[in-house]
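User: Fold this; tokens only.

Assistant: Input:
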Amino acid sequence: MNARDVYAYYGRDDIQAELIRLSRGKEVVGVFGDGRFSSRPNTLVYPNDITMLVRSGAVAFHGSLETWKNPMAVGSENYERLREGWDLVLDLDCEDTEHGKVAAVVLMDALKKHGVKSVSVKFTGGTGFHLGIPFGTMPGTVDYKDTASQYPALARKIALYLKDFSRQDLEKGLLKKWSVEELSEKVGKKPGDIMTKDGIDPYSIVEVDPVLISPRHLYRMAYSLHEKSGMVSLPLRRGEIEDFRKEQASPLKVRLIRGFMDRWEEGEASLLVTEAMDWAGRMKIGTERKGGRNFVPGKPVPLELAPPCVRNILAGIDDGKKRSLLIMINYLSSLGWKWEDVERQLTEWNQMNRPPLADTYIRTQIRWHENRGKRMPPPNCATPGYYMSFGVCEPDATCGGDRKTIKNPVNYALRKLRKAKEAKGKK
């Protein structure tokens, strides 16, 4: 789309009205064609706010999952006290839109089984889909704590629980339409890369991207254009998903304006939250381990001591780049690396990926982790959807071989460091 077409689309009264409605209490920024964001914090209050950003070159609009008392004060110190709520948005990330359609239907049905009927779905404008569950469906308190204050930990537990709950149904749904060979060909992987000992890993085909569920993270708003494809991020009904075609999201064809996350029954997600909390407790999701979980070495641990999975990531990858970025940010920061060195290393690494991520995406993710003021280790080795799912897990003797006695990549590096020091001491 050229600038005139973009301006004509956002000049529509109905599009402006819906974007303003969706922006209430939300942090909203414009996104330029090269992926850059406009200045933050920002929001949309008047139609003129939209047209001014479009005139400056904005093609898309991204909004926050969190709702704020004052979105314009979110950049201040202790901004979390301003949070009034948060919507749960599941990002179904896929290479093939047909696979995403299957995942959207499966997850919507899973939510319905938990009593959650107020689920919105929209095409992202790229290849995937977003499922939205309004904050109003959540119970007011969880474990005697205000639900609004439990973001992103509670949202992540719900997302991980839904992935686990839906795994078999998603596997069946994909295999009902395509063979293993067809699936692997469509996603550009070898059949062995999507197989497990029990069947296929459906999340190697359609990932429920965990990066979206982060403080101050933004996602493409309903009725925003996609900054690369020029298509509309289009809300759909449950019954329209299976027959949806991308051409329907052309800005020239969008006529009917539907609300996104605009209706709900208060507290209808209570069962979902209860089940997710019970599951997370059994799986020990989000629990703190004693004895050094937040230990940071005094000097940065060199990459020569990295485990095979990290070395494989650093060699450049085709699949799992966003998840690998999350792994690498947490791995390096947990091992004493300065943030400027983390950015330099990951910017160099990104050039080896096929294709690379946008440099702005790399910087945004690093800044978010830096600003949160707390270093956390990367996901554990056995966490579903990570190392094994995109083929970087190749355990060596230090990992424990097939027994995989090392639980986290950071533990591997610290063990190697300790052995190196012991060997030096003996000398």
